[in-house]
Design a protein that fits this description.
With about 130 residues, this protein is of the alpha+beta class. Helix content is about 45%, strand content about 15%. InterPro entries: DCC1-like, DCC_oxidoreductase.
Length: about 130
């Protein structure tokens, strides 16, 4: 089952998050696409996610998760102690998403913005959808 992470390709925080996941995803469970890419837009459309979304999206087979749910479902698939963070899923979604939205709303101000998407290494490139 395909597990795809859709991220804001011009967000420095999002780029660092993708690098964090890649570094820990030794089994190459995840694939990646920026929200701005053609592949990203196709996946948004396929799953009925509004095209103008700027949220972190995790597509797991035929299901998708957004905002805090997406992040927690990704942690569930990472090795070691990172899985424990999935336990936060028991918190009500509005509470989790309030914290998520605080970071999302300020991500460009706090972490900066890039002019273009990151350029992955040749090994990483295999994990990115075109």
């Amino acid at each position: 089952m395909k597990k795809v992470i859709l991220f804001d390709g011009v967000c420095n925080f999002c780029d660092r998050s993708v690098q964090f996941i890649i570094k820990r995803d030794h089994q190459a469970v995840f694939q990646f696409a920026s929200l701005q890419s053609e592949s990203g837009q196709k996946l948004l459309k396929k799953h009925g996610v509004p095209e103008d979304t700027d949220s972190f999206i995790f597509v797991d087979g035929e299901k998708y998760y957004d905002r805090s749910s997406a992040a927690l479902h990704v942690f569930k698939h990472l090795p070691g102690g990172w899985k424990l963070l999935y336990g936060l899923i028991v918190l009500p979604k509005p509470i989790r998403d309030a914290f998520y939205q605080l970071i999302a709303k300020n991500r460009y101000k706090w972490f900066g913005r890039k002019e273009s998407c990151m350029l992955p290494t040749p090994d990483e490139r295999k994990r990115f959808l075109d």
